[in-house]
Amino acid sequence: MLENYTEVSAFLIVGFPGLQLEHFHTVAWFLFILYVTTVVGNLVLVVMFALEHSLQKPMYIIMVSLVLSDVGFTTVALPKLIARYWWNDASIGFYTCHFQRHMIHYFGSLNSLIMLTMAMDRYLAVCFPLRYPMLMTAPTMTILTVFSWLVAHVFPGVTSINFTQISFCGSNEIIQAFCDTLSLTALACGDKRYLSGASYATAMFILLVPLGFVIFSYFCIIISVFHMTSGQGRRKTLSTCATQGCIISIYYIPRFFVYSAPHIPNMQMTSDSRIATTFFYSFFPPLINPFVYCLRTKEIKKTHNTAPLTQR
């Protein structure tokens, strides 16, 4: 019987291959500021939601879930990348890398489920406004949120089980900003077709199934909007959906191309373009989500504007 073996005891996070050593500290400062801004901005919103009881509604439960997911993803991914450029510390332990890979894809899967829940909430609110208060209560949204946080472990878990059956005995350089399935699969020994195919199928399932419902819900919402008699209500609904649609597009479309490139002929991406695309869809939405989803909300604006007055 053949036994699994592992000659690689640690991996090296290469990051951006073309980046020169003299720019390392500049990039490290940029990543550090990005990390602090993202975490502080999102946690301020969590505190605001916790203290302001008028915001404890189904829609805001989704937003808090998204905020916590963004903080979790950023915290798993960025500190090691910052260390890589600040102290030129590229080494990451074998099991630490696998844990990071699992959590990276866990939070990616969780965000997909959160966007599915968000689309469901908007669909019910616009298409069934009279039944919405009964269908989407705070307890119902809490159950859906907890369910999403638990189920999201299943999808990266499938790949984690597959990784226990392979070995790494060649290069240990991860040409990416963090440990992910594509990078680790490239370093595996032996026949990688099954692992690559299973990982791709899992990724497409967690991406395309929620995206399918998101597209369906937005199609129904647009039809309902054009039947509205109130021009102000029509503009408000379209503005909200357009904003959410931009963030959803940033999340889904680049991921599809990065995951699909190795499986589609004549659709190859260079290492730098793949890393840049991954960096964009991974860290840009967590940075702007507090402003897009929350600061434009009427209740938050009201809270933000009245708080200073109460202190005078």
From TrEMBL:
It comes from the Eukaryota. Its main location: membrane. One of its GO terms (cellular component) is plasma membrane. It holds the Pfam family 7tm_4. It is found in: Cell membrane. The keyword Signal does not apply. Belongs to the G-protein coupled receptor 1 family. Signal peptide: none annotated. InterPro entries: GPCR_Rhodpsn, GPCR_Rhodpsn_7TM, Olfact_rcpt, Olfactory_GPCR1. The chain crosses the membrane at residues 27-51, 60-83, 103-120, 132-152, 200-226, 238-258, 278-295. This is Olfactory receptor. The keyword Cytoplasm does not apply. GO terms for molecular function: G protein-coupled receptor activity; olfactory receptor activity. Residues 41-293 form the G-protein coupled receptors family 1 profile domain. Coiled coil: none annotated. Keywords: Cell membrane, Disulfide bond, G-protein coupled receptor, Glycoprotein, Membrane, Olfaction, Receptor, Sensory transduction, Transducer, Transmembrane, Transmembrane helix. It is a multi-pass membrane protein.
